[in-house]
User: Which sequence fits this backbone?
């Protein structure tokens, strides 16, 4: 299994490199210059040439590519054209925020999805099960950014319970540690719900069918025959056996959440990577755009790698494979 | 927690199996009915109700009007149109109420009848009818979904069939390529492509079609691979059928059922993705209406007019639900294995839900 995982790791690295290179060349082949300042007619020609020289844009494309990929390997992402500071600095400032939002959404997804999915499987065919099926299908079809807007309209405007956006209160700097944490959770609630609820619906459906499938298997019947309580059979036999595919789904959905935050971050003004990348695209800030894409691709690849590792760890049958 | 004793559960499971079969067809029927309703609304209502989605009433009077509010529209011979909450005739003049300043218009300046317009779903900040824009946006969304699914099928089905019927080396090569492509963050690819192709319906279809075919290709491949081992293929080969004939006459027709399911789910994903693209400003460009850019319009006026963003999003969600219901119902109908088992098969386990994309 270690060998197989090592192989997957190598192929993930390879895929990451291909994705990065593809995006690099794709962006350079676009019509127009990188950076909005380069196209401003008020900027004189010689200034423009100097800017190009400063950012290394006057070099041939292969040389730019080698320089850039060399920098990436050393952990240097270049200099943002729109924010006028190193890209690495922007990433360090925004990545934790995206991770925080995604983790909160993942927590909501797994907590709600597992609880509701198992409960529905235990009561398969009951009105509760039918209702959950219908609600989760509806919730699962909702676009997260619209759900976010509606949450703002409902719980920040009509009923001002939560803040409509941003990550902390303006005066948060003067709060004590405890209050600052509360303030963060308070700001986190709506975006995490917008991101996590549709995902929770998908997870609940998946958990329900996985557990239901396990409930029909012989080992569950034998557990029942041995007189174990229904609760024990459900949670420590049926769910435990179904945990491997569920863990795989969780790993994949972490990746989906991380790369799916763009619109939600834009809606809530959340200062994360998604919004930074979106701003970079609007401003044609190629170094930042490339870095954001790279980071997002890394998240996705890491998520699916994690999914497989988790699955192997949870399912003994896969360990020797 | 399950209170049922095992013996009871057996009986219940058998009963469930029957009720599930019935519910399955109900899922499909509900989805199809909902879809038919949406298509009919979007396609037929404009025939009897020809409100232009771009027509603007004076925003100072009719901007951000609540759902079901009514305005009187006066066409003037020289100055275009005026809108008023109510009109009153006094002598040879018409008094307009609801204007920022009291306004009077001579009857002789009027061109034609005073017409009244009802905003069934309210108006946006520019005084445009949300209902009319909703219908226009719906045509865009359905067209995008249709063309995208067509493009996806044209790419995915041949490639999946090729991969599934090719020698293992070629198959593995294609499969690894698909995995690498699938690990690519789709939204960033969408944004990158949106920067090359000029934003519009064509670019949206191209972007969604070219990034959305991977799940279907994998599905067709898996199905063709599984079918390859079946007896009827052996029989065909024994009867002297060539490789091409086996693939096209025997394998593909049988592999199309899951592709149809995937197509329906892909349509739901396409509609949501189009809205996300337009919402972020990389899809359909204003003033042409699309559900996504209507939501974007409504975002800035969310605190004063919730309806501008609510209705397009609700329509979007309803359409996505309809396509998802059809997909789920079709899968249950077409997959005899799912019926043979007492349990539901896991729902599209590894393709992420459409809402995860934006």
Assistant:
């Amino acid at each position: 299994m270690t060998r197989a995982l090592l192989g997957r790791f190598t192929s993930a690295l390879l895929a990451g490199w291909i994705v990065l290179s593809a995006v690099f060349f794709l962006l350079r082949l676009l019509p127009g210059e990188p950076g909005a300042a380069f196209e401003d007619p008020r900027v004189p020609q010689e200034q423009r040439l100097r800017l190009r020289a400063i950012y290394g844009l006057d070099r041939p494309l292969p040389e730019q590519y080698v320089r850039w990929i060399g920098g990436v390997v050393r952990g240097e992402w270049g200099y943002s054209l729109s924010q006028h500071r190193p890209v690495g600095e922007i990433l360090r400032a925004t990545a934790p925020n995206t991770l925080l939002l995604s983790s909160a959404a993942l927590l909501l997804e797994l907590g709600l999805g597992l609880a509701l999915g198992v409960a529905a499987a235990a009561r398969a065919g009951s009105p509760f099960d039918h209702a959950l099926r219908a609600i989760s299908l509806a919730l699962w079809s909702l676009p997260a950014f619209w759900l976010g807007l509606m949450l703002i309209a409902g719980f920040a405007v009509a009923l001002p319970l939560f803040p409509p956006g941003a990550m902390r209160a303006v005066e948060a700097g003067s709060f004590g540690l405890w209050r600052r944490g509360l303030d963060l959770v308070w700001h986190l609630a709506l975006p995490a719900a917008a991101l996590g609820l549709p995902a929770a619906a998908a997870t609940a459906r998946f958990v329900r069918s996985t557990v239901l499938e396990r409930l029909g298997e012989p080992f569950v019947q034998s557990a029942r025959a041995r007189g174990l309580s229904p609760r024990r059979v459900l949670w420590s036999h049926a769910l435990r056996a179904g945990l491997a595919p569920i863990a795989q789904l969780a790993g994949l959905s972490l990746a989906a959440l991380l790369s799916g935050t763009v619109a939600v971050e834009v809606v809530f003004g959340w200062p994360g990577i998604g919004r930074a990348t979106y701003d970079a695209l609007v401003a044609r800030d190629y170094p930042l755009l490339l870095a954001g894409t790279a980071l997002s691709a890394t998240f996705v690849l890491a998520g699916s790698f994690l999914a497989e590792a988790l699955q192997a760890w949870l399912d003994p049958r896969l360990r020797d494979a | 927690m399950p209170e049922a004793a095992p013996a009871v559960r057996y009986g219940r499971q058998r009963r469930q199996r029957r009720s599930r079969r019935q519910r399955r067809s109900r899922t499909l029927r509900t989805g199809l009915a909902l879809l038919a309703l949406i298509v009919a609304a979007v396609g037929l209502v404009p025939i009897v109700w020809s409100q232009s989605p771009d027509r603007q009433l004076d925003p100072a009077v009719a901007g951000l009007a609540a759902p079901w509010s009514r305005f009187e529209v006066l066409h003037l011979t020289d100055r275009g149109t005026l809108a008023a909450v109510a009109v009153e005739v006094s002598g040879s003049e018409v008094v307009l109420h609801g204007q920022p300043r009291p306004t009077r218009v001579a009857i002789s300046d009027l061109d034609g009848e005073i017409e009244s317009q009802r905003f069934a779903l309210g108006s946006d900040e520019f005084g445009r009818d949300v209902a009319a824009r909703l219908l226009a946006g719906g045509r865009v969304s359905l067209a995008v979904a249709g063309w995208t699914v067509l493009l996806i099928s044209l790419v995915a089905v041949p490639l999946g069939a090729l991969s599934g019927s090719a020698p293992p080396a070629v198959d593995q090569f294609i499969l690894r390529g698909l995995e690498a492509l699938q690990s690519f963050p789709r939204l960033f690819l969408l944004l990158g492509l949106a920067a090359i192709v000029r934003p519009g319906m064509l670019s949206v279809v191209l972007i969604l079609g070219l990034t959305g075919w991977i799940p279907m290709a994998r599905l067709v491949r898996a199905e063709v691979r599984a079918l390859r081992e079946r007896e009827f293929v052996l029989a065909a080969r024994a009867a002297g059928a060539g490789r091409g004939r086996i693939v096209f006459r025997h394998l593909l027709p049988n592999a199309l059922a899951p592709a149809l399911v995937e197509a329906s789910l892909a349509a739901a994903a396409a509609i949501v993705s189009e809205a996300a693209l337009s919402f972020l400003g990389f899809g359909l460009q204003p003033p042409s209406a699309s559900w996504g850019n209507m939501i974007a319009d409504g975002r800035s006026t969310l605190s004063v007019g919730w309806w501008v963003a609510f209705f397009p999003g609700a329509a979007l969600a309803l359409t996505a639900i309809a396509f998802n219901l059809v997909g789920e119902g079709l899968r249950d109908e077409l997959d005899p294995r799912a019926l043979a088992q007492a349990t539901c098969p896991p729902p599209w386990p590894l393709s992420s839900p459409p809402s995860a994309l934006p």
